[in-house]
Write a structure and sequence with these properties.
3 domains, 28% helix, 26% strand, 14 helices, alpha/beta, GMP Synthetase, Chain A, domain 3, four-stranded parallel β-sheet
């Protein structure tokens, strides 16, 4: 008797439309609509001898973690948490670079029924405090260099001695969570002009995100996958970590300060066949001028988080031998448009966001809620049971059903793949004693797409030294990437009659 085909057996665009169903999607998992655990789906059910994660460290080190090592250690961490008295629903914050302790804490917390909260390692005290105050974790897992940032919270230093101490815990653990139980809080760094809030994901979110894996990044069994984005953010977490591991596919990550030459060496040395990255990663690799030193085996490429310029897209295709495919969505609604990497019957149109993923109905609406004509700019909307849901992005659709981005409908700044809140940056700048008023915008930049630019009103004379002081002031309080790269001193800010 022939085994039933699975969604992972198909690669064509036409097959995706023909064979997709919610039942076929759920058939990829051990769990069901009642009982499911992300940790089990990503770690415990795969070939124990296979490589789960490879990590390229900035200092040149390579770290390899097998499914067996990750399964056993995350089970031990789950037992450790429960023996400490943590209970289902308690938050466990994790502020670590990609490493064995990071993945152990991430999956072990979710196995235990706790809520994992990945946090960016470059947060300063203000940026960390905002998120800690919001999620109120029972425990913070971090390293010795960052532990001083935490106040009034129990902190575990996840060093070698801690990992050795975990050996005292049992390596046997059976997760017992409902699909509807909370699994993870993810911070977006602001998707509106408000201070960031956590997007709360239940265990069943792993099923939905596999749509992005199948049609956005094109992951299939046998791929050697890599995503250099930090797993503290949506792309590196869901598309770079959860998605491939849930399908039993080896993934690779990058730890430390980004170096495009180091990344290219890892792509070569790991034999990577599928890359998902931000447009800036590809742009920086292009600008490094070192690609001819390496030999690549890449078959599929995707980008998300920001537009990719035509020069970088052309260089990427010429260098790796495959078209770079767009993947579009938001943290709140997931991926809704994709370019189907690896699908021979899907044409990648330069500048396009791609076509809707199976099971998703999209439209472009005008201000009156009516469908826009092909080529007409409106707001991209997604159909749900109770009507149309706004993406808060402008766009247009062509005669072939390909969607194009027309700019943000709300006020955010996307720079090098990071989504930043203008108001959060303004809030910190206004804490400086010499800043009277400030306005923060996104300013076009050849390398990063947009960079943060601040307009400053101050009684103090504006000069380079003052600008640098403001940059360091902001970066040290929010995040090392979240500061105004351009500073302009002005006499006044333009205001409406209402002030």
């Amino acid at each position: 008797m022939t085994a039933m085909a699975r969604l992972t057996d198909y690669t064509l665009y036409a097959d995706a439309q023909r064979h997709y169903s919610k039942e076929a999607l759920w058939a990829l998992f051990d769990g069901d609509r009642e009982r499911l655990n992300i940790g089990h789906e990503c770690v415990d059910r795969h070939d124990r001898d296979a490589v789960a994660v490879r990590i390229a460290h900035e200092d040149g080190r390579d770290e390899t973690i097998s499914f067996a090592a990750l399964s056993d250690a995350s089970n031990r961490f789950a037992n450790y948490l429960l023996n400490k008295g943590l209970a289902k629903g308690d938050r466990v914050a994790i502020m670590l670079e990609p490493s064995l302790p990071f993945y152990v804490a991430l999956f072990g917390a979710m196995k235990a029924g706790c809520v994992a909260v990945p946090l960016f390692t470059l947060f300063g005290p203000d940026g960390l405090r905002l998120r800690i105050d919001d999620c109120t974790p029972k425990l913070l897992v971090t390293n010795a260099d960052l532990a001083h940032l935490a106040e009034n919270i129990e902190t575990v230093i996840a060093d070698e001695s801690f990992m050795t101490a975990l050996d005292a815990e049992s390596a046997d653990f059976t997760p017992e969570t409902a699909s509807s139980d909370m699994a993870m809080y993810q911070y977006t760094s602001g998707t509106t002009r408000e201070l960031p809030e956590a997007v709360k994901h239940r265990h069943r979110a792993v099923v939905t995100v596999i749509l992005a894996a199948l049609y956005g990044t094109g992951i299939r069994p046998g791929d050697r996958f890599m995503c250099p984005s930090s797993p503290a953010w949506g792309h590196g977490l869901w598309h770079g970590t959860i998605s491939p591991l849930a399908l039993g596919v080896s993934t690779a990550s990058y730890a430390g300060k980004f170096d495009p030459v180091r990344l290219m060496r890892a792509i070569q040395d790991y034999g990577i066949t599928n890359i998902a990255a931000a447009a800036t990663h590809f742009r920086l690799m292009k600008n490094a001028g070192a690609a001819d030193r390496f030999t690549f085996q890449v078959e599929k490429l995707s980008f998300t988080g920001e537009p990719i310029d035509s020069d970088t897209a052309a260089w990427t295709e010429a260098t790796f031998g495959a078209p770079v495919c767009s993947m579009y969505g938001t943290t709140e609604i997931g991926v809704i448009l994709a370019d189907y990497p690896g699908a021979a019957d899907h044409r990648v149109k330069p500048g396009s966001l791609g076509r809707p993923i199976p099971g998703i109905t999209l439209a472009v609406h005008d201000a009156q809620g009516q469908d826009c004509a092909p080529g007409q700019i409106g707001e991209i909307m997604m159909q749900r049971r109770d009507g149309w849901f706004p993406t808060k992005d402008l766009g247009r659709v062509d005669e072939d059903g390909y969607f194009y981005h027309g700019g943000r409908a709300d006020d955010v700044i996307i720079s090098a793949g990071y989504t930043m809140s203008a108001v959060e940056i303004e809030d910190v700048l206004l804490k400086h004693p010499d800043v009277d008023e400030t306005a923060v915008i996104g300013s076009p930049d050849e390398e990063r797409g947009l960079v943060v630019k601040s307009f400053i009103v101050s009684k103090r004379p504006g000069d380079d030294a003052f600008a640098k002081e403001l940059q360091e002031f902001t970066a040290s309080r929010l995040s090392r990437h979240e500061y105004p790269r351009r500073v302009a001193f002005v006499d006044a800010l333009p205001k409406t009659p209402a002030g």
